[in-house]
Design brief:
It is a single chain. A 3-stranded antiparallel sheet has the order 1-2-3. A hairpin with a 6-residue loop joins strand 1 and strand 2. The longest helix is centred in the N-terminal third of the chain and has 22 residues. It is mainly alpha-helical. It has 8 helices and 3 strands; from the N terminus they run αααααααβββα.
Length: 210
């Protein structure tokens, strides 16, 4: 764990962060994961704000969704060697990536509780800066980004788009779309159904990034 450049004052927090619920139903990393998810989200958002000063909110949201995805978290966890230290019960192949990602978030939650937000944020930015810099341009299609995010987080499910009644003047209608995924909903509007669905996907990506 020395590659984290952080020394825990309370070593038990680290041990808890690396304990999956399958190994211990009562004392596991789920609560730390809950905190770490929020710490990661804010830290990555701050990093993107600094690195890409000319990008709009939608571009930043799409970058953010990729950077906090299960695949990215699992990649960082394995790079740090967390995969060799996680305590877990029986694990199907399809859930291994999620387990590593959850443990990574839990470690950030543990650092937050042990040393505060600044300490956790510093570690995250050190780990994520090069990953963020690797993509010169933001993902262009919010619907594709959302679909990939949902599929990685579920058993292949897809976002659900509902096309609502247009508003505005009849000769120049404004189309409205509601999208649902991962227990969240968002609305989007635009001059066409396509534009409205993209706007809705962008809004939901922002919500899921929180």
């Amino acid at each position: 764990m020395t590659t984290l450049n952080y020394k825990f004052k309370n070593q038990q927090l680290l041990e808890l962060a690396l304990t999956q619920s399958g190994a211990d139903a009562q004392h596991n990393n789920e609560r730390l994961e809950f905190i770490g998810d929020r710490v990661l989200g804010l830290s990555v958002a701050a990093l993107l704000y600094e690195m890409f000063p000319d990008e709009h909110e939608g571009d930043l949201a799409r970058r953010h969704a990729v950077l906090v995805s299960t695949d990215t978290l699992a990649h960082v966890a394995c790079k740090l060697g967390l995969d060799k230290h996680v305590r877990h019960g029986h694990m199907t192949a399809g859930r291994v990536q999620h387990m590593y990602a959850d443990a990574m978030e839990a470690v950030f939650g543990a650092i937050f509780l042990d040393g505060g937000f600044d300490a956790a944020c510093k570690i995250i930015i050190e780990l994520w800066r090069d990953i963020a810099a690797a993509d010169i341009s933001a993902p262009k299609d919010a619907k594709t980004t959302l679909q990939e995010l949902v599929q990685k987080s579920t058993a292949g499910e897809l976002p659900i788009y509902e096309y609502l009644e247009p508003t505005g003047a009849s000769h120049k209608p404004i189309f409205n779309v509601r999208v649902s995924a991962l227990g969240k909903k968002a609305m989007g509007s635009g001059a066409s159904k396509k534009a409205a669905s993209i706007a809705a996907a962008e809004e939901l990506l922002k919500i899921l990034a929180i």
